[in-house]
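Entry 14. Structure prediction run on the chain below.
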Amino acid sequence: MIYAFRQATIDEIDQIWTILQQAILRRKNEGSQQWQDGYPNPEVVRNDITQGHGFVYLENGTIVGYVAILINDEPAYAGIEGKWLSEGDFVVYHRVAIDEHHLGKGLAIQMLVAIEEYALQQGIYSVKADTNFDNKGMLRIFEKLGYTYCGEVYFRGAPRRAYEKLLSA
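Output returned:
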């Protein structure tokens, strides 16, 4: 298998939205409240891509994952109830989703490792993320990859668990 990680293009929005819809349904079927309020939606994905924040993970040229990546740009993180490990530059990612036909291969972990490599390429040594309290899969991934729980942040009025991982060159 050949894997690649790159910026998404606008003509890939339909494929990306299909993957996100699958993830939204998985969250619902697992009893999670995450992503059950109309977010994310196609307009969010379009904005990700047009602003250069949308990234895809590919297996043999086929899109199997999606994530939005931003640098130093998450206003909700300034209001953390808790404390971040670092105060400097950071990469933050949102909307992690893997195609349902490719689950169980560890692709989410591979994609998050690719995000860490992306951060280092930008000269940034902090990666921050958050997830819903009931997203057991993502919580396990944070643990496996050595993220530290830092506290709670709020999105659309709901608390989310916030994590940070410090990287070394």
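Residues 2 and 60 are 5 Å apart (CA to CA).
Filed with the rest of this week's runs.
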